[in-house]
Amino acid sequence: MLIGCPTEIKPQEFRVGVTPAAARxxxxxxxxxxxxxxxxxxxGFSDEDYSAVGARIAxxxxxxxxxxxxxxxxxxPQAAERAMLxxxxxxxxxxxxxxxxxxxxxxxxxxxxxxxxxxxxDARGGLPLLAPMSEVAGRLAPQMGAWSLQKANGGRGxxxxxxxxxxxxxxxxxxxxxVGTFAARVxxxxxADVTVLDRSLPRMRYLxxxxxxxxxxRYASGENTAEMVAEADMVIGxxxxxxAAAPKLVSRAQLATMKPGAVIVDVAIDQGGCFETSKATxxxxxxxxxxxxxxxxxxxxxxxxxxxxxxxxxxxxxxxMLALAxxxxxxxxxxxxxxxxxLNVHAGQLTNAPVGEALGIEAITPAMxxxxx
Length: 373
Ligand SMILES: NC(=O)C1=CN([C@@H]2O[C@H](COP(=O)(O)OP(=O)(O)OC[C@H]3O[C@@H](n4cnc5c(N)ncnc54)[C@H](O)[C@@H]3O)[C@@H](O)[C@H]2O)C=CC1
Ligand SMILES: CC(=O)C(=O)O
Ligand SMILES: [Mg+2]
Prior knowledge:
This protein is an alpha/beta fold. It has helices spanning about 20-30, 45-50, 60-65, 80, 100-110, 130-150, 180-190, 200-210, 220-230, 250-255, 305-325, 330-335, 335-340, 355-360, 365-370, and strands at about 1-5, 30-35, 55-60, 70, 90-95, 115, 170-175, 195-200, 215-220, 235, 265, 285-290, 295, 345, 350.
């Protein structure tokens, strides 16, 4: 199969979908790999690194999209990229369709088959292609939140760990999955007073058993969430209902209860965000203020540490990319229901129920798409 990888064009996105290590494996499996010139530079990989493992270099994204049978990327295709997709082509990348009707419309119109990293599942109930970036974003969240808490950035001027004689920052993390756990660990490591709110008792039992007194857990009832939000210097949004638009757990009215200069870091923004006042921002212009509360809502946080993130993502995606290339998407998805769960769009039809529900579009199941000729 011809696997194509264009340069990411989302603002300040320096990751790349195929690493030289993944390109080498694909070539070893007998596939052709076409990388856009410069695609890996932001992550520290030169064109020569790709040529050395047998990949070809294309001058433009248009060449990559025109030739590739499978396009492998990092971020959801931007409008200019969507215009280059064609019927029968396979797209393998993050999509986050639930909060994005424009992208959904274009992908449906393209006739392409689109497998979203974020809805591929595993046998343990996890999301193996989201997890590595959630590990990165979770670790980054307190770092970016601490920066946002600084006076020069509009924050309340509170140091995460306090100092002798001065209490530390209070951090509430809503959602104790992968992002939430890493965010809580790092915030606690910085010396903050951290509470994780979740609705899953088994998950909170796991956190309590694993982390003991490093941070507290609290059931995420509306009442408990409102109380923690009002007390916090920093609130990190880290909930997920896979595929679906993020539930709005903090309303605009609740901002009035927060401390002036408190900070919201809404990591769940790629699924639309879990605060009513969240809107996606970029690394170039990451924060804005609503009712005295600083909002950090960057939808591609791992792009800030592009080298670490690219290698981590490549490690996770490579076996799936090889399965798709070796067997073709149809056979690969028939053989692996967890990979089939990644199917979001096929030949003009939505194939993910939570996305369909969020957008009011009828969806068929991946199994139905697979049974079509
Ligand atoms: N902004 C960015 O750059 C990035 C964003 N993300 C996003 O971060 C979010 C979290 O991802 P993961 O931690 O991997 O998901 P996860 O599935 O590991 O964890 C989600 C947690 O949310 C909890 N939850 C669900 N509904 C809840 C509710 N109403 N109240 C409280 N807790 C609730 C679940 O029980 C679960 O523990 C996702 O939207 C993901 O796409 C991930 C990586 C990068
Ligand atoms: C998961 C995601 O949206 C990202 O890594 O950018
Ligand atoms: Mg997006």
